[in-house]
Amino acid sequence: MGKSATLGKLLCVFATCLSAPAQQVIIDQSYDPGYNNNFDFFMTHSAEGTQYGFGQEFTPKLASLNFVDLYLRAEVDSSQLTLPVHIEIRRETIDGPLLGTSSTVSFGPSERFQGEVRLSFLTEVPLEPSQRYVIKPIELTSRGSGYLIAFGVPRLGAGEAYDGGRWIDTEIGVDTTGRDMWFREGLSVVPEPSVAALLSEVAFGLFVSARLIRWRGAARGK
User: Fold this and answer.
1) Coil, strand, or helix at residue 216?
2) Residue 76's Cα: distance from chain center in Å?
3) What pLDDT does 145 receive?
4) DSSP three-state, residue 18
5) Where do the domains of the chain lie?
6) Phi and psi (nearest 5°) for 148?
7) What is the pLDDT along the chain (222 residues), one digit of tens a residue?
8) What is the separation, in whole angstroms, between the first and last Cα of the chain?
9) Contact status, residue 30 vs residue 149, Cβ threshold 8 Å
10) Which of 113, 172, 220, 221 could lock onto 74 through a cystine, CB 3.0 to 4.6 A?
């Protein structure tokens, strides 16, 4: 491989590193104790399809969010069926003004999953710091055993209590006292390249160009 080709590849790698800064994740509010068979899982509606008031309150410090992480369990025994889920951000109450709807994440066909799931928003959801909001999961197609999506709620004592809100579940017989859904919310951002990085990229490009011109001149003189 020639020197010019090698330098060209090095230049491409260098420029890519500078022009594609790493994505940064800023966690604002969270209740995310580690899973150790210490979670209960709850559906957002009955087997007949009756919707419960189900969600998690939070009180942000940041002025916006563009993702929410939840811990869930999905069971899809069908080889053809998929189960979609998304979330809404509501102001003040579970049925308060709708501020944003996330993209949809689907499970299946023939899938069993348990773990963390990130639900992202195409545009940032504006928030007012210190105002109460609600994360409201929306899942409409669960069909019972073998076809369900259920959301993780750590048991009492699994982690330090979250003071910025509470878990909401209006299903009869469910005791939500002192409990919260597992969640994180915040911002995922790609920082702008710094001026120093851009100048370094330009300087490196000029250096390589000068070396290529010198090598080409030397090759012609042979």
Assistant:
1) helix
2) 22
3) 66
4) helix
5) 26-189
6) -155, 155
7) 554 444 454 445 445 545 556 789 999 999 999 999 999 999 999 888 889 999 999 999 999 999 999 999 999 998 988 999 999 999 999 999 999 999 999 999 999 999 999 999 999 999 999 999 999 999 977 666 678 899 999 999 999 999 999 999 999 999 999 999 999 999 998 876 654 444 455 455 545 455 555 655 555 555
8) 19
9) no
10) 113
SS3 content of the chain, % helix, strand, coil (to 5): 20, 40, 40
pLDDT for position 196: 44
Q: Directed axis angle between helix 195-220 and helix 3-19, to 10°? A: 170
Q: Let me know: does 200 contact 18? Beta carbons within 8 Å.
A: yes
Fold of the 26-189 domain = Jelly Rolls (2.60.120)
HSE of 16, CA atoms in CB hemisphere, 13 A: 6
Q: Name the one residue in this structure whose structure tokens are 């073998």.
A: 146
Locus of tokens 């790493």: 22
Give the list of residues 6+ apart from residue 25 with CB closer than 8 angstroms, or none: 186, 187, 188
Asked if the peptide bond before residue 109 counts as cis, ω within 30 degrees of 0, the response is: yes
Residue type, 187: L
d(Cα 215, Cα 221) in Å, to the nearest integer?
10
8: left (phi over 0), alpha (psi -120 to 50) or beta: alpha
Name residue, tokens 């699994």: 158
Residue 104 has what pLDDT? 97
Spatial separation of the C-alpha atoms in residues 97 and 20, rounded to whole Å: 37
**What gap in Å lies between CA 54 and CA 38, rounded to an integer?**
20
